[in-house]
Amino acid sequence: MSIEINNESAIPVDEAAILRLAAFALDTMHVHADAELAIVLVDEGAMEQLHVQWMDEPGPTDVLSFPMDELRPGTEEQETPPGLLGDIVLCPQVAKEQAETAGHSTLDELLLLTTHGVLHLLGFDHAEPDEEKEMFGIQRDILIGFAMQERQRP
């Protein structure tokens, strides 16, 4: 998979871990190896501009997803077609605040948000209770699977 990450924020992050998580999530969702994903980390000002422009909501948010080719999850028998999955925009400053509230690390929050963004790019939503249950269940399973894989890394 082609995954690009660009940290335009002032906060250093473990880009390698975010890349590994994104690859794990895409593999778990049976996304074609030739799919392309871009992840951009921005500061609060840039995120607020995007949030207002695309969601018509004030203030910075934690993650925004911009799908391109509207790819959907594949199956073990049939991957998604190759294509442009889209862009995920993360705001480490907002993630840091949320992580402190949740009692875990900023990296853990960024991994959660990256997974959340990947699922949005694949067409998942959480506007309705049944959608939320499905999406958050898949999100949890991906994060647990990734944590288990990370523990096995040398």
Automatic annotation (TrEMBL):
Nuclease as a keyword of this entry, yes or no, is yes
Cellular component GO terms, alphabetically?
Answer: cytoplasm
Q: Coiled-coil annotation: which residues? A: none
Subcellular location(s) per record? Cytoplasm
Task: Report the SUPFAM superfamilies cross-referenced here.
Answer: Metalloproteases ('zincins'), catalytic domain (SSF55486)
Q: Which residues form the signal peptide?
A: none
EC number assigned by the record: 3.1.-.-
Question: Cofactor: bound how, per the entry note?
Answer: Binds 1 zinc ion.
Q: Which InterPro entries match?
A: MetalPrtase_cat_dom_sf_prd, YbeY, YbeY_CS
GO BP term (any one): rRNA processing
Keyword list (alphabetical) reads: Cytoplasm, Endonuclease, Hydrolase, Metal-binding, Nuclease, Ribosome biogenesis, rRNA processing, Zinc
The protein's GO terms of the molecular function aspect are: metalloendopeptidase activity; RNA endonuclease activity; zinc ion binding
Please give the cofactor(s) recorded in the UniProt entry for this protein.
Answer: Zn(2+)
Keyword Zinc among record annotations: yes
Q: Which residues bind Zn(2+)?
A: 116, 120, 126
The record's principal subcellular location, in a coarse class, is cytoplasm
Tell me which family the UniProt entry assigns to this protein. Belongs to the endoribonuclease YbeY family.
What does this protein do, in the record's words? Single strand-specific metallo-endoribonuclease involved in late-stage 70S ribosome quality control and in maturation of the 3' terminus of the 16S rRNA.
NCBIfam families noted in UniProt:
rRNA maturation RNase YbeY
What is the protein's given name?
Endoribonuclease YbeY
Q: What is the lineage of its organism?
A: Bacteria, Bacillati, Actinomycetota, Actinomycetes, Micrococcales
